[in-house]
Amino acid sequence: MTNTFYTDFDTQCREEERKHDYRTPFEQDRDRIIHTASFRRLQAKTQVFLSGEYDFYRTRLTHSLEVAQIGRAICTYLQRKSEFFNETFFVDANLVEAICLSHDLGHPPFGHAGERTLHDVMKPFGGFEGNAQTLRLLTETIYSDKVSRKGMNPTRAFLDGVLKYKTMYGELENPKNHFIYNEQKQSLNFVFEGYDVTKEIAAGNKRDNFRSIECQIMDWSDDVAYSLNDVADGIHSGFITKSKIEQWAEKQLLNDDQKESLKKLYAAMDNGNVERHLSGKIGKYIESVTLEEANNPMSGKTNRYRFDLLIDEKAKQESKMFKQLSLDLVFLSPQLHQVERKGDYLLKKIFDTFKEAYINTDTFSTHLLPPYVEQNMKNASQVDQRVRLICDYIAGMTDGFAIRTYKRLFDPDFGSLVDLI
Predict the structure, then answer these.
(1) Long-range contacts at 26-32 (CB < 8 A, ≥ 24 apart)
(2) SS3 for 232-255, per residue?
(3) Dist. CA 413–CA 418, nearest whole Å
(4) What is the pLDDT of residue 194?
(5) For residue 289, what is the enclosing H or E element?
(6) What does the domain layout of the chain look like in residue ranges?
(7) Which of 147, 198, 247, 272 has its CA 20 to 30 A from that of 186?
(8) Residue 197: what pLDDT?
């Protein structure tokens, strides 16, 4: 049965036309993501706690799987409940799943702390941003091997769904996050074919919030997953206790619904069923969404811009409260800051060492990087391109691989060669 929500404009690929396949274009997008090394590496990248430190807590991979499940469920809910959708006109759940599975692909080791570190060292060379790096993976590097660098030739709808931000690094006076790289304007040109979003929509939040319905679903799914699950992990780890929440709540301007939500959380903590209590909220957050028709420069070109996702204010405020709770009691804790400081130190030392060895020289006296990366260095004509290749290599590291790389470079007592093969 044909889904008339999408047209050839949505399924068109950035590069060559794909070969005929029994799968839909969006099923191909999803499957290509799952079978990549970049996706597998998420199992060893930090979500909240350092990967491998505890087996029970979430990693980037398990978080991405949870976001994908929520995203699919929202698609199902909207198709069954929305007045705008029916059996032949609906948001494709496979497309949303692909977007959700991909949304954190570009994040480096050591979580958001690692992202800040790479941005600091990359400021003179175009900056670093997790979403921009995801875009770079999908369009340029995700299928790189020992011979060539290659993206996955994504469909327009898939690429647009991942493209949360449309502001370029060079447009911002002091960019910290929420941008794409300057050279990625070509991706904007492909996604919006004929419509210059960088000129016709004001810079800042208004432009970055101009998103397809699939991107909006992914963004809310991400909020739902980490606002609830980060709290669960924080409670299980001992960072969040009842007394700490009570002290925290006294300093907040909470409304009655938020206060009642905390009372129920206390009861769940007393009864030992935190996971069940917070997981039950996922369904309520899914059912908190509705659709509203939109009128904008892209709404006449694709149904993906004909609708906006509306979220019930009560659910939105509760989610916001849980995010702030995790931020204040877990992410701002001395323990996590100590680990983040260590990650910052490691990544800067690794980056500076590679940069010293490979920038401003065509004769590499030491071979610190794999041969295919060195060959790409030689092929790069500009310093910025070479530094970006170093950044790509570091951003692709897992937490453990980054630590081992540091030890091989600087620890005299560490001599493991096994993962160099």
Answers:
(1) 26/92, 26/94, 26/95, 26/98, 26/155, 26/157, 26/158, 27/94, 29/94, 29/95, 29/98, 29/152, 29/154, 29/155, 29/158, 30/94, 30/95, 30/97, 30/98, 30/101, 32/152
(2) HHHHHHCCCCHHHHHHHHHCCCCC
(3) 15
(4) 83
(5) strand 289-293
(6) 8-208, 214-293+304-334, 339-420
(7) 147
(8) 86
The CATH code of the domain at 8-208 is 1.10.3210.10
First to last CA, the chain: 48
Predicted confidence (pLDDT) per residue in 160-186, tens digit: 999 999 999 999 988 888 999 999 999
Per-residue pLDDT at 205:
60
User: How far out from the chain centre does Cα 356 lie?
Assistant: 30
Amino acid at 231: V
HSE, CB side, 13 Å, CA atoms: give it for residue 283. 4
Give CA angle at 21 (20, 27), nearest 5°: 130
Q: Which amino acid is at 170?
A: G
pTM for the model stands at 0.94
DSSP H or E run through 309: strand 307-311
Q: Contact, 213 vs 304, CB < 8 A?
A: yes
User: Which residue shows structure tokens 């699950």?
Assistant: 229
Question: Can you give the pLDDT at residue 378?
Answer: 87
C-beta separation of 339 from 109 below 8 A: no
Joined together, the tokens standing for residue 393 give 């290599």
